[in-house]
Amino acid sequence: MNFILFDSFRRNNLLPLTYLRPVADVRIGILTIREKWEHLLRAKTSTLTEDYLRKKYPIIQAEDNVMINGSVLPNRQLVDLILGLKQNEALVKNDVVIAMRVKSVDPGRKEDETGEEINEISTDIDFMKVSNNWDIFNRNARALTEDYHLITAGRKSQPISATNRVLGKDIFIEEGARVECAILNAETGPIYIGRNAEVMEGAMIRGPFSLGEESVVKMGAKIYGATTIGPHCKVGGEVNNSVFFGYSNKAHDGFMGQSVIGEWCNIGADTNTSNLKNSYEEVKLWNFADRTFVETGLQFVGLIMGDHAQCGINVMFNTGTVVGVGSNIFGHGYQRNYIPGFLWGGNAGFRPYEFRKFLETARRVTERRNVEISQVDEDILFTVYQLVKERDRSV
Fold first, then answer.
1. pLDDT for 234-282, tens place per residue?
2. Dmax of the chain from CA atoms?
3. Rounded-to-integer distance, Cα 303 and Cα 340, Å
4. Where are the domains of the chain?
5. 20 to 30 Å CA-CA from 147: which of 25, 78, 179, 342?
6. 165-167 and 183-185 strand pairing
7. For residue 391, what pLDDT is reported?
8. What's the mean pLDDT in 205-213?
9. Strand partners, 349
10. Beta strand spans in 9-157 (E)
11. Average of per-residue pLDDT values in the chain
């Protein structure tokens, strides 16, 4: 079997987080959705996604292809059912196509269109699906707990230093990680510390919590579950139920709750994110597909920040704020609730962020982590720049 993770037509509900990646590469829990599938399938996957992303994420076809919905989080029951599919059979639940087995895939078609007669097989198996931005933090506790047991099963953690104060048993520390003089409370959920990561002195961590490879929790940080800090991040201050995809920094004091931060973002010192309205009303969030604010059904929603976005010191984000890819935000007072991509400024006014200048800064940021922006990456960024200019700023 050849496995292909496809973007459903609802991928735009996950913008700006999916501007630079397929849905399957969204991080929720410890792993990305793709990493979860590959771990359980014990096989590599390719992707059916937007045209402009295909050079970086090419589709690989064979004579026997299994297409899997990239927004669905796998479990062993689902995987067993998928491996049991016959040719031209699809596994569905209600209106969600989970997977299908076909001989060929036309990249020009959308989602589950194959041109072949498909026999649907229904299932009532419980699984999680990421349909909206807020699902990422709202379902992170379950995803993180499931990932913890998935990747630590049968393995032995590195010893926990006696300098730490430890509550609970589900704590796993990978090789090369350093944790000293911290409080680790795993009674509320598991705690996972990735390879070569560091938890500095005085940090207080309440699970469920995950710290990615080479990432750092700064001195005196206060982190509540369910929080995921992806690889190569630096995080300090107070954080509650938030997800950092990777390569992003919130290194200083300031509160962040119920938020999702993409890659290559930087949060300035003493930046604070409101996650609750003074009226205690349900929070609405900007939706790129509907081009309006939509109901989340949640009382607590903080900040959704696209890749390569930054903010200066003392920035104040309103409850339920969305910041697009590549924007640079600064200034006093509360910012507006929706800031399109590639803008420069704050509540005193914005101006377009010239692509050349944006790219110069982005290269400096990535080079500090010994990562190069390739020509393919630059082409993708420029395409997104054009999309944002033509579509997102016209509202």
1. 999 999 999 999 999 999 999 999 999 999 999 999 999 999 999 999 9
2. 63
3. 13
4. 2-103, 134-394
5. 179
6. parallel
7. 83
8. 98
9. 346
10. 45-48, 65-69, 89-93, 96-102, 119-122
11. 95
Tens-digit pLDDT profile for residues 354-372: 999 999 999 999 999 999 9
Element (H, E) at 150: helix 140-152
Residue 152, SS3 per DSSP = helix
* Tokens found for residue 367: 């080079």
DSSP structural state of residue 392: G
Beta bridge partners of 258: none
**How far, rounded to the nearest angstrom, does the alpha carbon of residue 286 sit from its chain's CA centroid?**
17
Local structure of residue 15 (DSSP, 8 states): T
**Spatial distance between the Cα atoms of 78 and 91, rounded to a whole number of angstroms:** 9
CB burial of 299-336 (b: ≥16 within 10 Å; e: otherwise) equals ebbbbbbbbbbbbbeebbbbbbbbbbbbbbbbeeeebe
Tell the CATH topology of 134-394: UDP N-Acetylglucosamine Acyltransferase; domain 1 (2.160.10)
Cα 392 to Cα 16, 169, 262, 318, 324, distances in angstroms? 10, 47, 18, 20, 9
> Could you give the residue ranges of the DSSP H alpha helices within 315-370?
355-367
Cα–Cα distance measured from residue 259 to residue 334, given in angstroms and rounded to the nearest whole number? 17
Residue for token digits 């200083």?
252
- Give the containing element (helix H, strand E) for 286: strand 284-287
Bridge partners (DSSP) of residue 352 are 343
